[in-house]
């Protein structure tokens, strides 16, 4: 793969992780399992994209946006209740963002609205993004291909089945979490 195509590929993985999350990243992980992509570069691109995606919403909702939201009584009332909860469990709220697909934007916004320090948010979210990327990559690229052949599932399927499993689990979590907040 030439350098320009490689750079565009890893940039695309970062953008996909920032905008959407799992589908693009597990697809890249499946390509790692077949030897088409570099695992360290995929992990780095996924972690960077994931962190940038979460932090975008955190920084957008800091400052003036929360002041504007406070002008709407219904939002202000819910915002204060959510902010109190986030303040009590600040670290856990930050760590959950990467693993709560239906609540990523809401949790990042809640952390900003409740005054979580920017350095704390960025550091913890960055670390969680690395764990998220490395964990998904290991599951799809190595765990599946190492154990599924024992069940007679090999080739591309040994990477695609864990990838589909991850996507389905994250989609179900997203629906459950969205229903819980409605």
Briefly characterize the structure:
With 182 residues, the chain is mainly α.
Largest sheet: none
Helix content: over 70%
What would the average pLDDT be, to the nearest integer? 82
What is the helix tally?
A: 9
Beta-strand content estimate: under 5%
Low-confidence stretches: none
Q: Class by helix and strand content?
A: mainly alpha
Shape: elongated
How far apart are the first and last residues' alpha carbons, in Å? 47 Å
Q: What is Rg?
A: 18 Å
**Care to count the β-strands?**
0
SSE pattern, N- to C-terminal: HHHHHHHHH
How would you describe the overall organization of this protein?
Helices cover 80% and strands 0% of the residues. It has nine helices and no strands. Helix 3 (39-60) packs across helix 7. The longest helix is centred in the last third of the chain and has 30 residues, at 118-147.
Key structural traits:
182 residues, mainly alpha
Topology at a glance:
Blueprint: H1 3-19, H2 22-33, H3 39-60, H4 64-70, H5 73-88, H6 90-96, H7 104-113, H8 118-147, H9 157-181
Helix pairs in contact: 1-2, 1-3, 2-8, 2-9, 3-7, 3-8, 5-6, 5-7, 6-7, 6-8, 8-9
């Amino acid at each position: 793969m030439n350098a320009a195509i490689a750079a565009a590929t890893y940039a695309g993985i970062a953008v996909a992780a920032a905008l959407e999350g799992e589908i693009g990243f597990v697809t890249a992980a499946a390509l790692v399992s077949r030897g088409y992509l570099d695992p360290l570069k995929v992990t780095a691109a996924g972690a960077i994209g994931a962190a940038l995606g979460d932090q975008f919403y955190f920084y957008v909702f800091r400052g003036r946006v929360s002041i504007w939201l406070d002008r709407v009584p219904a939002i202000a009332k819910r915002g204060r209740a959510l902010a109190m909860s986030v303040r009590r469990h600040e670290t856990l709220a930050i760590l959950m963002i990467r693993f709560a697909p239906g609540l990523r934007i809401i949790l990042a916004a809640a952390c900003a609205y409740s005054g979580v320090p920017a350095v704390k948010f960025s550091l913890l979210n960055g670390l969680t993004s690395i764990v998220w990327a490395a964990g998904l990559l290991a599951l799809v690229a190595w765990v599946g291909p190492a154990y599924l052949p024992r069940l007679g599932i090999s080739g591309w399927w040994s990477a695609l089945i864990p990838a589909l499993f991850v996507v389905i689990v994250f989609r179900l979590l997203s629906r459950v979490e969205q229903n819980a907040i409605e």
